[in-house]
Amino acid sequence: MFGVVFPNRSFPIDISTFSQVDTFHWILDMNTFVGEAYDQIREICIFLLNGFTLPADKALAVYIQSPGSPFLFCGAVSIARPSAVLTLSWPDPIGGGQLQLTSADSAPVSAKIGVSVEDLVTLPSLDVGAQSRVEYLAMKVGENLFNFMQSFCGVDGSRLIVPMDILDRWFKKFQEKAKRDPDYLKGFVL
């Protein structure tokens, strides 16, 4: 049905490594691979296997769960998008980073990755990580502009006064830095 790869961390892993909860849900216990270092795994590549036909209105949704926290949606794949590299932004574990114990078996609750078959229309976006990277990039560029403007502005009461051509000057400087240093723009990427 599907497989996953943790880039630079694993070989392809098929569905048999996951525990099947029911017909449409699978769980991967991260203790199997990395124990408490689950938060060092920052990406997952999920892909549909050849020959598997997922209905056009369905998707395989990927969720992550830190110890003691609820599942968090990361992204999905569908027939139209049969593979994806998703960013794993692990939520903070409940209990200040310490593993919680379950009352039933007193075993530590570990981080998990969940995969489920869901209606495509109910999912917010197939790649949540891409959206957060775009938001982060916009914030960093805006911060760069604000810092540049601060060096040229005056204050009139509660207002900042800036020269009329400030955006043109900032953009020209931004372009010059990017041309001189190819790694400059990488500083804006998550």
From TrEMBL:
One of its GO terms (molecular function) is nuclear import signal receptor activity. Signal peptide: none annotated. Residues 135-186 form the Hikeshi-like C-terminal domain. Pfam families: Hikeshi-like_C, Hikeshi-like_N. GO terms for cellular component: cytosol; nucleus. Belongs to the OPI10 family. This is Hikeshi-like domain-containing protein. It comes from Kingdonia uniflora.
